[in-house]
Amino acid sequence: MAVDQNLKIELGKQGVLVTTIQELYNWGRRSSVWPMQFGLACCAIEMIATTMARYDLARFGAEVFRPSPRQADLMIVSGTVTKKMAPQVVRLYNQMAEPRYVIAMGACAISGGPFKQGYNVLKGIDRYIPVDVHIPGCPPRPEALLQAFITLQKKIDGQHLTGPDRPRYLDANAQGEFPVPERGEHDLEPTSNQGVWPVQIQGLRDYGQATAKRLTEN
Amino acid sequence: MKTVEEIKAAIEAAVPGAGVEFVRNPGPAAEHSLRVAPASAVAVATFLRDDADLALDFLSNVSGVDWPDKEIAEKVKVTRTVTKTVDGVEQQMEETVDETRKRIEPGCLEAVYHLYSVAKKHGPLVIRMKTANRSDQVELPSFTPVWRSAEFQEREVFDLYGIIFAGHPDLRRLLMWEGFKDHPMRKDYVEPDDYEYEHVLARAQEHKNRDQRTEIRDQGPGVA
């Protein structure tokens, strides 16, 4: 089954390549991740800089930005997701073919960032779609995006084709389509997808009241 | 450019019954403005644009202002007749008492326009309009037929403050979606409360505990 690492290196020196289907498969996937060509805010400028000659994302096999979600493997949520835009982002994610990955780039995409207390900004895209790598920063430097990309490649390398920890797309029973939120009268409905974001939303006002109650009880 | 008082006089000479009111700005900027009656506002705006001296051909900015209902407490002296018993004899006496009265000053919505002249290189002139209240009579005339650049900005004011601009060619929400009911920039707007702070605090506590455990482990066996 598993080949001893030293033996493998020794065989490699003799011109004999020993590998597993899983390794070959993961190597193929991680070496040609095609990101989707879309940006949401200022983080997108950094994302564009990352693809250009100075930082050169092409070194990692991800230079082909696809304008169609059908051909993309990776969604880089680069910037503020407004509540008006959130349904489209989820719909684009639904249209991507498996295997697909998400990088949430920047403070806004991971939590709402400086606009968290606003009325029109989603408090993190991971409320609706599963995120593989989060990058903090406002905006993150191109190096941070490269780091996130390398992290994602490591994650792909570590995936098993079988077994209980296999990725979602190899599990026939796993959920593949994520519900698109509706634009309601006051907010998006629902405010999160409990399947991917099991965090219980406790309102700030409720939290304030609970804290006040605890303080008076003590 | 003429002073704001001179412009007011010019408007009153050109547009009969214009209903223009001078609003003083007491701050150091001293940027005084003119409050225009909504009924004659379009005529006044057309005059400001077409007048040879003013030629205010560029509308730079449209802003909304929300003035909520204000409760004003004021002390008034009230004279009233009281019956008092003095030396066993009932007498009618007049007495002056201080009384605090509260009244509600009704709020309104206001649209503020900043005008410049590209031809004459002067400006800004600030004109403003008030609605009757902030619930059902929120209609103001649109300046989009006079200055085309008002179109999107008036849509934004409509979206965020709820002022309805009569005569606007395409009055839809600009930033929020169709079907959204509130006007987020109003003072009494209540934003959706969907934070996850409680959870974050609980996790921070867990993290703290984990760090302490790590310390104990690092000290090796036999300690702790």
The topology string of helices and strands of chain A comes to HHHEHEHEHEEH
CATH architecture of the largest domain in chain A: 3-Layer(aba) Sandwich
CATH overall fold name of the largest domain in chain B: Beta Polymerase, domain 2
Regarding quaternary structure, how should these chains be classified? heterodimer
Give the CATH architecture of the largest domain in chain B: 2-Layer Sandwich
Low-confidence stretches of chain B: none
Low-confidence stretches of chain A: none
Primary descriptors:
heterodimer; A: 218 residues; mainly alpha; Rossmann fold; two-stranded antiparallel ribbon; 7 helices; B: 224 residues; alpha/beta; Beta Polymerase, domain 2; 3 domains; 25% helix; flat
Gist?
The complex is a heterodimer of chains A (218) and B (224). Chain A has 218 residues and is mainly α. Helices cover 34% and strands 8% of the residues of chain A.
Task: Describe the structure in your own words.
The complex is a heterodimer of chains A (218) and B (224). Chain A is mostly helical. Chain A has seven helices and five strands, in the order αααβαβαβαββα. In chain A, strand 2, helix 5 and strand 3 form a beta-alpha-beta unit. In chain A, helix 2 packs antiparallel against helix 6 and helix 3 crosses helix 6. The longest helix of chain A has 16 residues. The mean pLDDT of chain A is 87. Chain B folds into three domains: 121 residues, NADH:ubiquinone oxidoreductase Nqo5 subunit (Beta Polymerase, domain 2), CATH 3.30.460.80; 34 residues, no CATH class; 31 residues. In chain B, the strands form three sheets. In chain B, strands 1-2-7-6-3 form a five-stranded mixed sheet. Classes of the chains: A mainly alpha (218), B alpha/beta (224).
Write the layout of secondary structure elements.
The complex is a heterodimer of chains A (218) and B (224).
Chain A: H1 5-13, H2 21-30, H3 43-51, E1 74-78, H4 86-95, E2 101-105, H5 106-111, E3 133-135, H6 142-157, E4 182-183, E5 188-189, H7 204-217
Parallel strand pairs in A: 1-2, 2-3
Antiparallel strand pairs in A: 4-5
Helix pairs in contact in A: 2-6, 3-6
Chain B: H1 4-14, E1 20-23, E2 33-36, H2 41-50, E3 58-67, E4 70-86, E5 89-105, E6 108-117, E7 122-130, E8 139-141, H3 150-161, E9 164-166, H4 197-218
Parallel strand pairs in B: 2-7, 8-9
Antiparallel strand pairs in B: 1-2, 3-6, 4-5, 6-7
